[in-house]
Every structure is written in C-alpha cells, then in structure tokens.
Amino acid sequence: AGLGQAAMYAGLQELGVANGEDLKETLTNCTEPLKAIEQFQTENGVLLPSLQSALPFLDLHGTPRLEFHQSVFDELREKLLERVSAIALEGKVEERYKKLEDLLEKSFSLVKMPSIQPVVMCVMKHLPKVPEKKLKLVMADKDLYKACAVEVKRQIWQDNQALFGDEVSPLLKQYILEKENILFSNDISVLHNFFSPSPKTRRQGEVVQKLTQMIGKNVKLYDMVLQFLRTLFLRTRNVHYCTLRAELLMSLHDLEISEICTVDPCHKFTWCLDACIREKFVDNKRARELQGFLDGVKKGQEQVLGDLSMILCDPFAINTLALSTIRHLQDLVGQDTLPRESPDLLLLLRMLSLGQGAWDMIDSQVFKEPKMEVELITKFLPMLMSFVVDDHTFNVDQKLPSEEKGPIPYPSTIPEAFTKFLQENRIACEIGLYYILHITKQRNKNAFLRLLPALVETFSDLAFSDIFLHLLTGNLTLLGDEFALEEFCTSLFDGFFLTACSRKENVHRHVLRLLLHLHHKVAPTKLESLQKALEPTKQSGEAVKELYNQLTEKLELRKPSPAEVTETPSMELPLPTVPTPASR
User: Fold this and answer.
1) In whole angstroms, what is the distance from residue 163 CA to residue 274 CA?
2) DSSP string for residues in 356-416
3) What parts of the chain have a pLDDT lower than 50?
4) Region (Disordered) spans which residues (predicted)?
5) How far, in Å, are 82, 188, 355, 514, 535 from residue 464 at the CA level?
6) Closest by CA position to 515, among listed 529, 495, 504
7) What is the pLDDT of residue 467?
C-alpha cells in the first residue's frame, strides 16, 4: 500500500506542494492533532474566500470533503485538457509550442501521479518535438512508455530502431499467419479464394491499419518498416511480405499522406498496378502507363528497380499479370498473331520477370532488369497456343458427323520441351501453371489430364507451392463428378499429389483439404487406399493430424451400419469362384 500511496503523490514535493507524507509527519510531531488537520486543510484547500462558508453546508449533507475535492479536481483536469488541445491549435507556431513546453517543464515531475498523468501525456502528444531528456525518461519507464500516445512513441521510435522492431515484429508474424490461414482454409471454393478480396478490402486488415497508424506521417518510420520487410523477405523468401509492402503504401495513399507518398518512388507505379489488381486484368491504357514508369528509371536511380520488383513479386500482382497473359494468348490464337508480335504481351512478361527476379535482385544488390529468354517467347508461348488450338480442333471434330474411321481421340502426349520449360524456366513455369488452372476452371478434363504429368517436377517445386495448390483444389471442385472414375483419381492422386506428400507437409494438408470437401464423390475403393496412403506419420505436424482425424470422422459417418449390410438382396451376393481349367 505504501508504494501505491507514494505513486499517488509522486512529484508533489518537488513542486512545493504538501502530500500525504507531510500530513503524516505533521500529525506525528504535534500535540493537538485536530488543530493540525484544520490548519493543513486551510493551507492546502481550494483557496477561494467564498468557499469557506459553503463547505460546512456540504458537511451537513454528509458529502465527504474527498468527494468534493475529487469532483473539483476532475472538473479542472477536464478544463486543462481542453485548454492544452486548444493551445496546440492557436496563435503563432513558435508561441504555442513555447507555451506547451513551459507547461511540460512545470508538470513533468507529476507524470507518475495517476490523476495528473493524462494532462502531462496530453501536453507531450501535442508537441512535435518533446525534449530529448523527457523522451529518455519515458522510454526508461515501462509503464510511462505504455501510457504515452502514439505521437510521442513515434518520436521515441524514430531514433530507436530496435525498440520499434520489437513493436512491429509481432504484427508481421500475425500478418503472415493470417495469409497462411486463408491458403489452408477448410472452405474450398472456386468463387471465394485467396485472391477474391479487393485491394481496398485487404488494406482494411488489422495489421495494415495498425502499421499505418504507427507510422503516421513519419518518413523515417516508414523507411524502417520497408527495411524490416526487405530483410524478412530475404531471410524467408516469403512473398507475403511483398504484399504487405504494397498494401502499406496504398493504405497511406488512401489517407492522402503526401509526406510519404511523394517520397516513395514506387507510389505512382503501385497505384496504377493496384487498379489492375482490382480489375484482375492489365488493360492497354494502364499497360502503357506501367511501361512508362519502367522505361523512365534514370541512370543512377536503378535502385528503385529493387523496390518495383518487390511490388511486382506480390502474389496479387503475379496473379493479375499471369491471368492477363493467358487471356492475351487466347486472343492471339484468334488473331493469328505470334507472341513476339504483341507488345502488350511482351510487357506482361517483362513485369512477371521483374517480379520473379525480386529476391535475386535484392540479394545480389545488382539493380538491372533480368534478361528475357528468347525461347520463352519463340517456343514456349507458341506451344501453349498450340494446346489452345488442339482444344478447338478437338471440339470441332466432336461436332462433325463421324465417318468410318471413328472419332478422333484427344491428344494424350505432351511435347518434351513443355516439361523441360516447366522444370528450367521460372516464368514459363508460372505461366504454365496458370494455364493449367485456366483449363481446370473451364472443366476441361482432357487437357488437364494431358498436362498433369508435367507438374510432378517443376521449377523450384512451384506446382507444390501453397498458392498454386490452393487455387487448384478450388478449381478441381468443378470437376467433382470425375472423382468417381478410378482412372481420373489415379492420375490426380497417385500421379501428382502423392508423389510429394511424404516430403512436403503442405501438399499433405492440401490433399486432405480436398478430400474433406469431395470425399463423397470419390470412388469407394480409391477412397480406402487414399485413406491408408494419407495416414500421418510420427513426423507429421499437428495440422495434418487434425485434418486426417476430421476426414476419418466424416468417413466413419458415411459407413453403413452392420444391420444394413446383412440386408443385401441375395442376388447381389458374390458368385462362388469356379476355378478355370488354366489355374488348376
């Protein structure tokens, strides 16, 4: 209790104001306590002559003096807080801040006194530059630091990167976790996936909002956050940090914080790209604009390419660029035009290439655009276009009256070069994967099964990355009825998913997510073998075990009860096997 009391009166003595300790001392050393109390009250009470006669009136009503003083005190404190806020807005800049600094000088010694603390904090909040000495005292005291306004904390943070890092770090962890939770969510849908929320909706997320508030208009803090994001991206290769880089800039853009937006050289590029992401397409007008920014990088300013590449490495940007590329390729088929003759397509590839090269560029600190492989444009993209043509031809063939030779089968082989491109060229692999997502979304089972074998080995295992598997599982729900066919399941599960399950925990999780959603459509014998194949091992993480248990429970519920089994009509009983002569 002694400590609590001491805190209540902290700093009064320095101002020459009597406190509880003084009263205790007076009472200990006096002969007439009541007189001493009366004298203490007179000396330290509210010094208003008219009040002296009114106080006994309150006593008659049984109102304790404490209650009276407390209400006067609260009233005065409110008035003072209002006055401080008013001073911060009136008169000449130098004068108003001089007043506030004087007030801070007088009141700071009471900062630990809970009843006065809000006033001191309010004064500091309105000072654009709190004296260094005071900031150091606040920083050294955990409780004071916690109690001070974000405006004051910014002044502390801008010269204490480590402290700011401690504040930001849990937010960044939370952000990554939120992204991963969406990718592994149990709701599998082709309509609501990872890329469904609009950029504006995403920027309303808790982490982005908190970081925006912590930064305020402070360029130094903004730069620190970008530095953290770059460092973490380099350390982990996690592309969600690139998303946050873009979201943070656009969140400040929404608030029209020109102090930061005008000094970030990526601002206009990001703003234009943001509009494309919103439409999930890069139209010609915006393409020209984006190209202008890239072509406008001047000699000596190449470092901005590092930032632009990080903005383009954001999965939402890659998704938009890749979808636009697939759309362009289809248009080119209709126009009888080759990829090399389409400047719009070449620009999309240039941006994809810059985005995919972000990690290498920031790591090597060599700021120049990656070289585009000619074969990507002259061989790989025409090959994808030939797949589109194959589909058209097959569809037309199906409609023609069949002649003697019977229907033409769907092409089942894939050019070896296609598989090789997917293994060796990052951009080709990314576009190839998006083409496979595209045909799956079109429910084109033939094309899907034809190209699926090429996914077993891809550039840096991109076909087993969370974003691709999240989208693929969503699109596969459109082919739900095919899961009843043993052949389809064997190609998909044995031929693709199960090749990586044991070495990649995330693939194991995605397969279980898919089965939780579609188990009722899968051929029963296949389901049984899958259940065995997907059983978690000792090394499996909690998430896999949890999903597997959920699946097992669902399958248990589907099993018919023994009573139902015995009632099968006799004609459906298996026939006794008669040995054939050959097997004797």
Assistant:
1) 32
2) HTHHHHHHHT--SPPPPPHHIIIIIHHHHHHHHHHHHHHHHHHHSPP-TT-PPPPP----H
3) 1-3, 565-576, 578, 580, 583-584
4) 558-584
5) 60, 17, 20, 14, 19
6) 529
7) 98
Hey, what are 244's tokens?
Answer: 């946050």
Distance CA 170, CA 200 (A): 23
**Residue 149, SS3 per DSSP:** coil
Question: Residue 125 has what pLDDT?
Answer: 84
Give one word for 62, left, alpha or beta, with left for phi > 0 and alpha for psi -120 to 50: left
Q: How far, in Å, CA of 52 to CA of 574, rounded? A: 108
pLDDT given at position 559:
72
Residue 426 Cα distances to 66, 313, 385, angstroms: 75, 13, 19
| Residue tagged 């900031």 (tokens) | 135
Structure-block tokens of residue 236: 């982990």
Q: How far apart are CA 189 and CA 182, in angstroms?
A: 12
**Per-residue pLDDT, 497:** 97
SS (H, E, C) 201-212: HHCCCHHHHHHH
Kindly write down the DSSP assignment for every residue of 252-310, as one continuous string. Answer: HHHTT-HHHHTT-TTHHHHHHHHHHHHHTS--HHHHHHHHHHHHTPPTT-TTHHHHHHH
Cα angle: 217, vertex 223, 224; to 5 degrees: 110
**pTM assigned to the model:** 0.84
pLDDT in tens, 332-364: 999 999 999 999 999 999 999 999 999 999 999
pLDDT of 20-55, one tens digit each?
676 677 777 777 777 777 776 666 666 666 666 667
Any residues with CB less than 8 A from the CB of 131 and at least 6 apart, and which? 101, 104
In angstroms, the CA 256 to CA 279 distance is 22
Residue with structure tokens 């899961």?
A: 483
* pLDDT on residue 435: 98
- How far is C-alpha 84 from the chain's CA centre? 39
Residue type, 190: V
Q: Across the chain, how many H-helices and E-strands are there?
A: 34, 0
Report the alpha-carbon distance of residue 71 to residue 59 in Å, rounded: 15
The SS3 assignment for 218 reads coil
Instruction: Say which DSSP state 460 is in.
Output: G
Q: Say what the pLDDT of residue 568 is.
A: 46
Closest residue by Cα to residue 240 from 162, 167, 317: 317
Query: Within 13 Å of residue 466, how many CA atoms lie on the same side as its CB?
Result: 18
